[in-house]
Amino acid sequence: MLPSLIGVICILVIPYINVIFYAFINVWNRKFVGFDNFKRVILNDSFQLAAYNSLKFIVTCIPILLVLSLIIAVYLHEHVAAITNTFKSIFLFPLSIPVVSIVLLWRLLFDDQGFLNGIFNTFSIKGVDWINSKYSFGILVFSYLWKNLGYSIVLWLAGLSTIPKQIYEAARVDGAGDKECFCYITLPNLRSTLFVTMVISIINSFKIFREAYLLAGDYPNKSIYMLQHLFNNWFRDLDIEKMSAGATLLSIILLVPIVALYKCWNTKE
Amino acid sequence: MKNKVILFILCLLAGIAAYPVVFLIVGSFMNSDMLYSYLSPVLIDGEGYASWGLFPWNFSLKSYIELLVDAPSFFVMFWNSIKIVMVILVGQMIIAIPAAWGLAKYTFPLKKVIYFVYIVLMLMPFQVLMLPEYLVFDRISLVDSHLSVILPCIFSTFPIFIMQHLFSKIPNEVIEAAKLESANDFQVFIYIGLPLGKQGIISALVLGFLEYWNLIEQPLAFLKDKTLWPMSLFLPNISIEEIGIAFVTSIIAFVPCGLVFVFGRGYLEQGITVVTKKE
């Protein structure tokens, strides 16, 4: 226990606190400046753009991901184990494909003259330059769903497996149909799974930077300039004040779901 | 009828999930003429659109040989990746296994606080921790060395979280029984904790491997010297000369992950679902 604690405190906790402290001072003359750094960050144009895009990404992806994976999970749950396992493996498979490998396909697929536009062309639809236009946002959404669908399916299935079969049988005896069973038994019982899956999906959504960066570099199209790009660019200029304030701000926002998740893990039903 | 439709959609989605690897494998075995004829619209801005075949009719290992013979920079990156991942995983085990055991089986002051801090650190994205980590490494002048990527990952609290969950499922009676047989704490840990918690340890390793093989943010931020970069940052140009190499690197980057996936799928799943379990 001790070595881990010492390491964690030295490398993560103390510097973290240090940075929160930096967020409130002027780094050059060490004077306390109150919330000035925060004000500068929030009023910063790139910050607003990046925050907007990150938020838009989360708001777009998470509902699609959760609903799609829930439908598949419910379907798989009702079937024999062999089918469930095969599909589970296939859907989890994208997790094992390195980002750097898949980006090659995305680049060929979404190029101005790539496969996708080729397919569109055979139906006489005019294609667009996906990567360098506002449609690049769509690529990231697709890429995120492609990668994380299996992850969420597995989480939903774990939740579904905890619902006792007897409840369904009892409901059937009372004359409940598929729809009633789903709405009154399955959904309420999955509430904590929904919450956990949602928080984990939001956390995972930060990793989309990998795809975005390998596809489009430091300064991608405006529609996919996210908080991660912004932090990276601040970092390159070593803009410590903005970064400290930004990191503190982001921590505070993320602390809300994290604390809720922690509470959820610690309450016994 | 309704079920058939759902099954069909499911198969379609499964196809989308699995096809990319087939695509990359096929591409890596095509000879350059064939790649060229399929992809020239993308490669040299020719007329029309790129197309693709389902099978490498003009089978060729030339791309592989080219990469192995002509691309020394690739080897450097490959070994960088191996080194970073292996050191992280070994280090994690040394640090995290005892820590997880301690959290699962002992009571000590501030335990709850420590556990909470660990969870917060586990879930915070790298962007938040980037500056704090950098300031430390800058002070002890480790920036631009592999250690700056490796150290924070070794002290990652994620494997501790997974392992302590499985350790805590070991019944206390077993441990008490062992103590009655006059086993000391260390023996209990070695002979009971490790074998019974094996699943959690392997889960953490599998998830860790997939994560650290894909490190992009950390090396990008902390390693300015490109000869230190791991393979996850290797992006060959999509040009006529290099397209074959691009396919082969994709495959080689994938193979270790593919193997880990095939042999560790069950553990992977177990590691993922740990988050849904209550204490």
From TrEMBL, chain B:
What Pfam families does the record tag this protein with? Answer: BPD_transp_1
Keywords in alphabetical order:
Cell membrane, Membrane, Transmembrane, Transmembrane helix, Transport
Q: Which InterPro entries match?
A: MetI-like, MetI-like_sf
What does the record say about its membrane topology?
Multi-pass membrane protein
**Organism domain of life:** Bacteria
The ABC transmembrane type-1 domain covers which part of the protein?
78-264
Q: Where are the transmembrane segments?
A: 7-30, 77-101, 113-137, 149-167, 188-210, 243-268
Q: Which family does it belong to?
A: Belongs to the binding-protein-dependent transport system permease family.
What is the protein named?
Carbohydrate ABC transporter permease
